Amino acid sequence: MKLLGHVLVRSALAAALVAAGLAGPAAVRGQADDEAALSAVRAEIEALERRIGQQAAERDANAESLRQTELRIAAVNSELARLRAAALEQQERRETLVDQAGDAQDRLAAEREALARQVRMSYLTGRQELFRLLLSQETPAGLGRMMAWYDYFNRARSGRIAAVSGELARLGQLRAEAAEVETQLGTLRAAEEAELEALDASRAERRAVLARVEASIDAAGDEMARLRSEEERLVDLLASLGEVLAAFPVDAEVPFSDLRGQLSWPVSGRLAADYGQSRGAGDLRWNGVLLDSVSGRPVRALYHGRVAYSDWLPGLGLLVILDHGDGYMSLYGHNDALLKAPGDAVATGEAIAQVGDTGGRAQPSLYFEIRRNGEPVNPHSWISGAPSVN
Q: Who's near 201: CB < 8 A, 6+ residues apart?
């Protein structure tokens, strides 16, 4: 690939500059080169995704229809996740404002009470005491001290008045902010209802498409041929991704190969199919594990890496592939929402998708694989303990 060659040339040039001691301006250029390389990788992955979509359309109209429908469902689910997160943030903001308004109301009541006491004291003692002072036989120095005391008293009262005015302004501001947040919450709820209606419509369409797919499979009697074809597409995809990602390797503090037996399952669920088990009457076997789980449950990254693929693939539905470096990749299929885009860096345990039933599953499940240089490896060797069921 010409583009891949240009990226590798740039990387080699950057390494040569660093070795020559030109780390000042070269550091800035190196960062720009990294960003350019990442953009190039993303562009190639997007082109690869478009090619896969086109192949699905050419091979099977029903598969392409399913792809389009499930991608719409994924988009709606992702938007719902965004709306719900925004609504939760606004709800927390509203609760904070209500608490602040309550505190402001309490402070306002206290300031008003203090001001009322000062006014009553001033009324009861102010004029009479000042008249007595003026007619008394006090020395000028004593009279001056008493007048200074009254001046201080009046300034304190003025401060109380200013404090009450300030609390009134703050309370008004808090109430205005709370009203604005309430309006935003209403808008978010309306948007969520619209998205839910769109989701229902897309799911109804998906059921119709799946019925056509199942009918075509029954008519042709080629279930094993379909499974073989889907496996071939996945192998081709992984090989193409390996070529593309060679231009932008993952930088991990601990190599993936050193983590055997230390990682955690990406989601909790019941083990419905295990690595190495037969997939029917033929000689096909499971290359990963299938975990029956709960729809919408977060799917978490097995380990630090970069998103290599985030799109739809026949048989696996909405699929995320993470590149962990050194030829290792992890695969997460049958999702109903994709939370990351190709090229995104992810941390260990970060949510990358949501459990779903795309790709023809009868119930929410996660299909999970680990591969090295395109070859499947037993995930149990890398993960501590059995999957939890909850």
A: none
Distance, CA of 13 to chain centre = 36
Residue pair 373/327 in contact by the 8 Å Cβ criterion: yes
Is residue 344 one of the residues assigned to a domain?
yes
CA–CA distance, 204 with 224 (Å, rounded to integer): 27
Q: Kindly report the CA angle at 233 between 230 and 239, in degrees rounded to 5?
A: 145
Residue of 233, 225, 241 whose CA lies nearest to 324:
241
* 168 plus 116 within the same structural domain: yes
Partners of residue 371 on adjacent β-strands? 329, 376
Are residues 369 and 267 part of one domain? yes
pTM comes to 0.58
**Residue of 93, 45, 73 whose CA lies nearest to 336:** 73
Give the per-residue pLDDT at 258.
93
pLDDT digits (tens, 9 = 90+) for 40-63: 666 777 776 666 656 555 456 666
Specify if 124 maps to a domain: yes
Kindly state whether residues 160 and 120 are assigned to the same domain: yes
Q: How far is residue 239 CA from its own chain's centroid?
A: 28
Residues 92 and 10 in one domain: no
pLDDT of 245 reads 80
Q: What is the pLDDT of residues 174-184, one digit of tens each?
A: 777 777 777 77
Q: Is the pLDDT of residue 386 over 60?
A: yes
Pick 58 or 204 by higher pLDDT: 204
- In a shared domain, residues 185 and 249: no
pLDDT for 54 equals 60
Give the pLDDT confidence score for residue 12 in this predicted structure: 35
What residues make up the domain containing 119?
86-199
Examine the pLDDT at 3 and tell me if it is beyond 70. no
* 185 and 281 belong to one structural domain: no
Q: Would you say 302 and 370 are in contact if contact means Cβ atoms under 8 Å apart?
A: yes
Looking at the predicted structure, is the pLDDT value of residue 203 above 60?
yes
The answer, yes or no, to whether residue 294 has pLDDT greater than 90, is yes
Q: Is 213 exposed, middle or buried (0-12, 13-18, 19+ CB in 10 A)?
A: middle
